[in-house]
Write a structure and sequence with these properties.
This protein is of the alpha/beta class. It is built from nine helices and eight strands. Strand 2, helix 3 and strand 3 form a beta-alpha-beta unit. The longest helix has 14 residues. It binds pyridoxal-5'-phosphate.
């Protein structure tokens, strides 16, 4: 599927949901994709991309940034605290704030650097043991603690369980965000971004539908 096709589907979903056209940000998830495919999307004028590993992002994006202005890079994968500084230097937005230790590290580094990327708190809405994220029951407290630390939390992020109806998880994430006064919702991927938009997504993370299937790393 082409970038243009995805963009028209986003517009249609915004209209169907009675939302302002252009209010949903499309993060093109370029992890593991060959550089030619990424470059093709850059040449079509798209500037917002997502990576799930700091290492991979660091190997790929500085060179693209030398050639293309205005790249907005989002980290959407789990982050080790020892890579936090590198992630903050490289990324404009980090969607994987998922534990107190990482919040403390961001707060310390934000002081030291005088700046911090925008943050999304990842919520493990499916309560899956193997998945990162704050459990729904602990979300209110964690959000409050992060805001107390002056972290620039823009909203919440989730990755629904593979075999469940994603809209239940999108609705839960939206509910937690609303009751905590957060407006950003990072939810929806290639297979379900339209339903995420219907439920209020402000950032959708779409990989394979734009770039094609990921080649095994
Ligand atoms: C890979 C990935 C995506 C994109 O997945 P697609 O199904 O290819 O759209 C979205 N979010 C996260 C966190 C990912 O790791």
């Amino acid at each position: 599927m082409s970038l243009d096709e995805i963009k028209s589907r986003i517009t249609a979903a915004e209209q169907a949901a009675g939302r302002v056209v252009g209010s949903v940000r499309l993060i093109a998830v370029s992890k593991v994709q060959p550089d030619e495919r990424v470059e093709a999307v850059l040449k079509q004028g798209h500037r917002c991309f997502g990576e799930n590993r700091v290492q991979e992002a660091a190997g790929k994006w500085p060179a693209f940034r030398e050639r293309f202005d205005g790249i907005d890079l989002h980290l959407i994968g789990p982050l080790q605290t020892n890579k936090a500084r590198q992630a903050m230097d490289l990324c404009n937005v980090i969607h994987s704030l998922d534990r107190p230790k990482l919040a403390n590290t961001f707060a310390r580094l934000a002081q030291e650097r005088g700046a911090c990327p925008d943050l999304f708190i990842q919520v493990n809405t499916g309560e899956e043991p193997q998945k990162a994220g704050i459990l729904p029951a602990g979300a209110d407290r964690f959000i409050a603690n992060c805001l107390d630390m002056d972290l620039p939390v823009q909203g919440l992020m989730c990755i629904p369980p593979a075999n469940e109806e994603p809209s239940l998880h999108f609705a839960l994430l939206a509910k937690i965000a609303t009751r905590n006064g957060l407006t950003g919702l990072s939810m929806g991927m290639s297979a379900d971004f339209e339903s995420a938009i219907a439920l209020g997504a402000t950032h959708i993370r779409v990989g394979s539908a734009i770039f094609g299937a990921r080649v095994a790393p």
